[in-house]
Automatic annotation (TrEMBL):
<comment type="subunit">
    <text>Heterodimer of LeuC and LeuD.</text>
</comment>
<dbReference type="InterPro" id="IPR018136">
    <property type="entry name" value="Aconitase_4Fe-4S_BS"/>
</dbReference>
<keyword id="KW-0028">Amino-acid biosynthesis</keyword>
<keyword id="KW-0004">4Fe-4S</keyword>
<keyword id="KW-0411">Iron-sulfur</keyword>
<feature type="binding site">
    <location>
        <position position="347"/>
    </location>
    <ligand>
        <name>[4Fe-4S] cluster</name>
    </ligand>
</feature>
<comment type="similarity">
    <text>Belongs to the aconitase/IPM isomerase family. LeuC type 1 subfamily.</text>
</comment>
<feature type="binding site">
    <location>
        <position position="408"/>
    </location>
    <ligand>
        <name>[4Fe-4S] cluster</name>
    </ligand>
</feature>
<dbReference type="InterPro" id="IPR015931">
    <property type="entry name" value="Acnase/IPM_dHydase_lsu_aba_1/3"/>
</dbReference>
<keyword id="KW-0432">Leucine biosynthesis</keyword>
<protein>
    <recommendedName>
        <fullName>3-isopropylmalate dehydratase large subunit</fullName>
        <ecNumber>4.2.1.33</ecNumber>
    </recommendedName>
</protein>
<keyword id="KW-0479">Metal-binding</keyword>
<comment type="pathway">
    <text>Amino-acid biosynthesis; L-leucine biosynthesis; L-leucine from 3-methyl-2-oxobutanoate: step 2/4.</text>
</comment>
<dbReference type="GO" id="GO:0003861">
    <property type="term" value="F:3-isopropylmalate dehydratase activity"/>
</dbReference>
<keyword id="KW-0100">Branched-chain amino acid biosynthesis</keyword>
<dbReference type="Pfam" id="PF00330">
    <property type="entry name" value="Aconitase"/>
</dbReference>
<keyword id="KW-0408">Iron</keyword>
Amino acid sequence: MGSTLAQKIWDQHVVRRGEGGEDLLYIDLHVLHEVNTPQAFDDLRAAGRSVRRPDLTVATEDHNTPTGKLDGAVWELAGRRQSNLIRANCAEFGIPLHRLGDSSQGIVHVIVPELGLVRPGMSVVCCDSHTTTLGAFGALAFGIGTGQVEHVLATQTLPVRRLKDLAVDVTGALPGGVTAKDLALALIAQIGTGGGQGHIIEYRGDVVRQLSMEARMTLCNLSVEAGSRAGLVGVDDTTLTYLAGCPDMPVGTELAHQQQLWRSFVSDADAVFDKRVVLDASAVTPYVTWGTNPAQAVSLADRIPAPGDLADEAQRGAAGRALEYMGLRPGQAMRDIDIDTVFVGSCTNGRIEDLRQVAEVLDGRRVADGVDLMIVAGSAAVRRKAVSEGLDRVFTEAGADFRPGSGCSMCCGLNEDRLRPGQRAASTSNRNFEGRQGKGARTHIVSPPVAAATAIAGRLSAPADLT
Ligand SMILES: CC(C)[C@H](C(=O)O)[C@@H](O)C(=O)O
Ligand code: SF4
């Protein structure tokens, strides 16, 4: 019997098979940001230990950093303190840090691929749940908590409970105007926020094969919102082409040798998965959330469901509470929902391809009166690329605020970019929990083209709705 991709990577990293279903895994790359790490460093210091492999560790500042004019920025004290801590900790332990203002700074899951730090077959951990993004490269990448960060810092290993394999077969063909974000939202609506629990998802099928690396990253990013620990895509030509363009890649015969090895990071044809889900891409349309978890989503063409129509008791209760928080009524058409803010960015949809999709819709149009459109590149490199392609002009002429900085921004409300209570946003990010984008703020998760069309129309819309 063959192995799944996840099993292959797992087996290659087992340092010690544990009893009780937990194995000690070797970690190839450990990524840090300013949230959730100060305690780990304090504990490390208290134990008198050093960082075992600073050369396999890398850090960035992204969650708490401002995105406004960096020179005169009023940097909130709490955020500045967090940055001061990661700066001091990285300096003390010899860990490379991509600081605010550096040309390589950005959201952790955006800069790691850009810098060519993630490669097929690697094990990667980070103090952040959306580390799943990196699975797009055929790597086993997942989020860890503060205590585990200390363990990896000290030993470069981590005890991890064995996980099951869930195959998500995306069949059919992707209709025009439908993105990886819509696929992910449709999947989560189908299997629920707990559908992937205890599993590693592998996305398979022709539709996935045809997705760009950026789109695969979006898909893998949202794996954690389906409750799964990691999400991955097997290596193919698309992966290899992307990697060949990354900095510090080998060249010539050395690259060819690596590529041959990387190609082995696919599931064997006869691999057995514990569970299989089929998602028919042909039936997917632009998806939008109406509630306060990512599974509370419907097609933009639909209406908000009546809680009473939902399958189980828990879902009904959650829907009632969500509608109250969101200030919405059952039966309301999604297209009738007015919004006042649009946020384009985050590790889900803050890459160059996302910004291109937004620019395509904005080109020659104006953002609706009373709507704020904020666009934040996922990294400084993405921003430079956007400028070099003239996207900044399109954004500015449309009336958008293309922020000078890059980072998590309004995705999480952990910096100055926040909504006020009662404000309603269409957001290309990945979480719509209560208060996620600011206390009392309401979030509708959407794809980049829907975000752009919504900014123009002033209510939830797809590009096809615009005249
Ligand atoms: C702050 C961080 C730990 C958190 C995460 O783990 O995902 C954040 O990135 C998020 O998206 O909620
Ligand atoms: S962009 Fe949002 S989801 Fe991604 S790491 Fe930052 S806070 Fe988390």
